[in-house]
Amino acid sequence: MNNMPKVKIGIVAVSRDCFPESLSVNRRKALVDAYTKKYDEADIYECPICIVESEIHMVQALEDVKKAGCEALVVYLGNFGPEISETLLAKHFDGPCMFIAAAEETGDNLVQGRGDAYCGMLNASYNLQLRNVKAYIPEYPVGDAEDCADMIHEFVPIARTIVALSQLKIISFGPRPLNFLACNAPIKQLYNLGVEIEENSELDLFEAFNKHAGDPRIPDVVKDMEAELGAGNKKPEILAKLAQYELTLLDWIEAHKGYRKYVAIAGKCWPAFQTQFGFVPCYVNSRLTGRGIPVSCEVDIYGALSEFIGTCVSGDMVTLLDINNSVPKDMYEAEIKGKYNYTLNDTFMGFHCGNTNSKKLTSCSMKYQLIMARSLPEEVTQGTLEGDIVPGDITFYRLQSTADNKLRAYIAHGEVLPVATRSFGGVGVFAIPEMGRFYRHVLIEGGYPHHGAVAFGHYGKALYEVFKYIGVEPTEIGYNQPAGVRYPTENPFA
Fold it and tell me: Cα–Cα 20 to 30 A to 447, which of 24, 174, 248, 477?
């Protein structure tokens, strides 16, 4: 995963001048020590220049963490804290910020050793709102050194994602295929999020592909593909063209990412792609996604954005699937009922032609695309990666801009069941508690497209915080309500 940052997080302690400064100094040191002993996924910088008690201290601390290269900030209330200075620190820091507060250590030291940070967090949160300053505040933001170290650990993927979005460019190749209005959405919200987009013609891509004919790097890429596919290499005659296409995309990224550090691609794969390029791009898309460069299908720009967010949050590859078809009743009765605690309506099949990375398939075969081959010569539909998706926990989610330019999102935890799909493409039998109601009252009612991003694990907590931080109203973040909790649009008499 080389398409995301490893964030450097600065920790700045604050203190109101009527409290002993040593309270914040000692608590900050204990926090940093607790974090570095337990975690190593982020570079932690302990701001030593001062404890922030005034606006002058705030400026000094701000300059210090910027000079140290910090991309995210933890404002740590070692005691009650100066509400103006500490919130100005977050206002003027260019990056994601978190506020946490120290708990009292012992009942034997509640005179000189009492910090009152529990109270100070209330004033800090109020002042952040007064100044319209964004900050991440954990569910329970007060704790001892170990507790606060765990809070920073939960902040890391959130901070990593916010930083990455501010340096992201989405490269698209269009226009969308006919009848795929569902993948259309206003791009204005991308700019509001700080994301750049470069929209290109499919003809531009075709020209670049043709210029890569005979590229001397092609044989090495073919060898790498052969090693990955193994016995699943069912169409070896197409590998050279696929390697040519992979090099085209990678070179395009390097030539076009400009001042941005990170890239995602919204690609096109039909209807003219197969006949002109002579293959389908699914397998190449899966390989790039496996490197942390998500590639969506059908020019799904917000699908690519969703995939990138999931990659940053999970630190792992993701995939983009159609919320595709129901599980047949006979299949449910024979292989799911009584073995897993799901109803028939909790299950569905997630599918796409072949863009899921081989590492997320139980086994894989690179072959032709069955749907396209129904109306085209089979030889031009080669290049899709088929296999059942690996069983285990998943998060189904998506960030979307609505037709009226409003950000909306959904998140649902579930799992891929260890049930053979008996189908084709990259496909799995998914189960999400109360999926039938979620499908009707979030996905359909919310006007979401059929594409959903899939992260391999349960990452809803971090995704929810990311969506809130970037501006999605909490009321616009849908999730699968438990049984007995009614959706606003749900018929109470049903």
Answer: 174
